[in-house]
Amino acid sequence: MNTAEFRQPPPHRRYDARMNTRERMQLFLRSETVGGALLIAAALIGIVLANSPLSEVLHAVATTQIGSDALHLNLTVQEWAADGLLAIFFFVIGCELKHELVVGTLSKPRQAALPVAAALGGMIVPALLYVAINQGVTADALNGWGIPMATDIAFALAVLAVLGRGLPTGVRTFLLTLAVVDDLGAILVIALFYSASLHVEWLAVAAVLLALFAMAQQRRITSPLIYVPLALGTWYAVHSAGIHPTIAGVALGLLMRVKRDPGEQDAPVDRATERFHPISAAIAVPLFALFAAAVDLRSIDLGAVTGSPILLGVLVGLVVGKPIGILFAARLATALGAKLSAGMRWIDIALVGALGGIGFTVSLLISELAFTNEESLGAAKIGVLIASLAAVALSAVVLALRRSLAR
User: Fold this and answer.
1) Helical ranges in 139-168 per DSSP H
2) What is the model's pTM?
3) Could you write out the DSSP letters of every residue in 52-95?
């Protein structure tokens, strides 16, 4: 689930020699390849540091507590990365969801039917495979059923951008639409199944603040002096309500206004995405990935972990379940009347299915929410890392097969 920019930048935002350094950097960070590369680099650094002489330093930084005890915000640096910074990532996802629902692919039912069906199949089948493998093991093991449901869109788009040159544009559009639905599904799973006990009074406070945020959007207020306090207050209220605070980011994104007023250069949702996507791609997601992927393999019984049903469930769910679920659901949708986009073939759907198995950012987040036991958490994280690499390799194989068939 991360997200990369789903739409091309508006014409006046594309590369121009007259851009200043800040504008060029923003445009650079909006690149799918760059965002994916930063994510992968951060994860690799986390793994290397966790298994080096600097592991104690990294652990000390990750577990350093920052924040007020009185406000119940005495979180560790690692928790701030997962609960705080990642809310920016989810805000960008919320903005993209809103755009797609109002004026994008998901606003046209006939056009959205096939990728929506494929996304649902790509969530249900991996979860069922995970449960089947972990059934009867332990109740703790079953908590990880949501891990293989998620696709890391930044990672997947980066792989597609590097490997998939010359593919029909419909492949990218299909992957993007599928990822939007996948993101929405992951958000609902986190909110409903991986949140703490609910405190209704704080949920009511969050609802009031969100209503004020929506009202400010409708009244065309543009001052950050209004939006920043409302956004921070909403995050705190959702955190205090016992719901994972990244949900606040999604909710705020979904309230952004999509359509431009006469005389407006960009709609608020586009301005917000343009402003926050570089922060998400360069800071929020890489920092989360660095801490989340920092698994000290020396402290884990690799023999026990490699035979763990949790690792196997994540691996099979992502690498096998995702492609099968996406292909099967897409076939079912076409049997019921949906149609492939012009220029696309079934081998292209298989490629998207293989890319869907790259479940990194959100899969790691759900791993941390699902398990408190270090051995189970280690098995889940190692499963996500191995599965994501295997999905990249599988994507390369499918792409080579596609090119062979084309010849």
Assistant:
1) 139-142, 153-163
2) 0.79
3) STTHHHHHHHHT-EES-TTTT--EEHHHIIIIIIHHHHHHHHHH
Q: How many CB atoms lie within 10 A of CB 265?
A: 10
Residue matched to tokens 């792409």: 399
Adjacent-strand bridge partners of 65: 76
Task: State phi, psi for 141 to the nearest 5 degrees.
Answer: -65, -40
Compute the distance between CA of residue 363 and CA of residue 201 in angstroms, rounded to an integer.
Answer: 30
Q: Tens digits of per-residue pLDDT, 105-135?
A: 778 787 788 989 999 999 999 999 999 999 9
Q: What is the tens place of the pLDDT at every residue in 240-285? A: 988 888 889 989 999 999 998 888 888 999 999 888 988 988 899 8
Identify the burial level of 11 via C-beta atoms within 10 angstroms of its C-beta, where 0-12 means exposed, 13-18 middle and 19 or more buried.
exposed
Q: Dig out the tokens for 271 from the structure.
A: 């301005």
Residue with tokens 């629902």: 101
Of the candidates 287, 353, 268, the residue with the CA atom closest to the CA atom of residue 94: 268
Q: How many helices (H) and strands (E) does the chain have?
A: 20, 2
In this structure, what DSSP letter does residue 15 have?
-
- pLDDT 10s digits, 307-337: 789 999 999 999 999 999 999 999 999 998 8
